[in-house]
Amino acid sequence: MSSTSAPRLSVVIATYNRLPLITRLLWQLAGQTLPPEQFEVVVVDDGSKEPTREPLQALALPYTLRVEVQQNAGAAAARHRGVMAARGDVVLVTDDDMQVAPDFLERHLAHHPEGSRTVVLGRIRPDPSIGDMPLFERWYAYLNNRMAEELSTPGARARGVHLFTGNVSFPRADYVGVGGFDKSLGQSEDVELGVRLEKAGCAFVFARDAYVLHGSDHVSFERWLKRAHRYGMFDTQVARKHPDVRDVNPWRLLFQTNPLTRPLLAATLVAPDASRVLTRAVMHAANAADKLGLEKAAFAGTSVVYGMEYLRGARGEAGGWTGIAREVARYLQGRGE
Q1: What is the pLDDT at residue 337?
Q2: Which end of the chain has fewer surrounding CB within 10 Å, N or C?
Q3: What pLDDT, on the 0 to 100 scale, is given for residue 4?
Q4: With contact defined as beta carbons under 8 Å apart, do 42 and 72 qualify?
Q5: Which stretch of DSSP H or E encloses residue 213?
Q6: Which domain of life is it from (predicted)?
Q7: Cα end-to-end distance, the chain, whole Å
Q8: How many helical (H) and strand (E) elements, i.e. helices and strands, does the chain have?
Q9: With 0-12 CB in 10 A as exposed, 13-18 as middle and 19+ as buried, what is 249?
Q10: Which residues contact 152 (CB under 8 A, 6 or more apart)?
Q11: Which residues share a beta bridge with 13?
């Protein structure tokens, strides 16, 4: 379907080697209660190995679909390209492995009256099949649920650090006004964007009812560890950009975690390579607890493992003890908190 008038809402989805999943999502968007002339979908293929544009454009969808293709440049660059190509006043960003309810778009738009400057943080709920996934992926779903419960409590305040690209909408003008995603960041580009939008005066709202179902095809423990490592690296870069926002500083873990786990985190800093054996031992214990049905203990152990690898990444980015001392001092001296 094509349209000459600009839609009210643009849905932006970056995709990479997930043709069946993005196809499923596009069909779910075809069944929205929001009339199809009021929204468009912009898909950006970030250098998939299999052709994406032709199969997607061949779908008989009731809304306007545009497919952009680029060489692999990362999720931040792909999403930025999609937002810049979007024609709607409001942009909604989600991921290619999400599923949505029929009223998903309508619920997001309800929080964007004309002229408002609202960033809507939708809930990310785990797909029911998450129970079949490895412990570390179920732990990730547990964190999403915990954050949703915290933001749903009376008086809770949604902030820029809560922005995740799995389910968020914002005025396109504000996105452009703050410069969009920082494409130099390989992780945490969403949180960093949220910080800048908050500083620019946008209001943040948590919309529990505008939810997505998040499945997962991540089954490799080694890849999960590498992702934790990268978050530690790039969160260090984000903290340097925003020294006044303590919640993005990776060294907060040393002060906010359970005191019983701090020796393990310290071991990671003192002997990052030698302590890898310890990291794997903790994960082995967490998996053993999981098999015994001790979910709380299993999640606690997984959190420790993630924190150890995360701080390895932060340590490497800090560049040794002098750098670590500087980054910790930045956390302790953080302004505006």
Answers
A1: 41
A2: C
A3: 61
A4: no
A5: strand 203-214
A6: Bacteria
A7: 49
A8: 13, 8
A9: buried
A10: 206, 208
A11: 43, 94
The helix/strand/coil state of 4 is coil
188: which 2 tokens? Answer: 């945490």
Q: What single-letter DSSP state applies at residue 119?
A: E
Domains located in the chain, CATH noted = 9-214 (3.90.550.10), 221-332 (no CATH)
Name the residue among 307, 314, 183, 169 with its Cα closest to residue 236.
314
Give Cα separations from 333 to 103, 246, 275, 329, 337 (angstroms). Answer: 45, 9, 29, 6, 10
- Give the C-alpha separation, 266 to 273, whole Å: 13
Cβ neighbours, 10 Å, residue 201: 9
Q: Which residues of the chain have pLDDT under 50?
A: 1-3, 335-337
For position 336, what pLDDT does the model report?
Answer: 39
Cα(85)–Cα(300) distance, integer angstroms: 42
Question: DSSP labels for 285-320?
Answer: HHHHHHHTT-HHHHHHHHHHHHHHHHHHHHHHHHTS
Pairing of strands 64-70, 118-126: unpaired
- What single letter denotes the amino acid at residue 62? P
How far is the C-alpha of 147 from the C-alpha of 162, rounded, in Å? 8
Instruction: List Cα–Cα distances, 56 to 59, 87, 197, in angstroms.
Output: 5, 20, 32
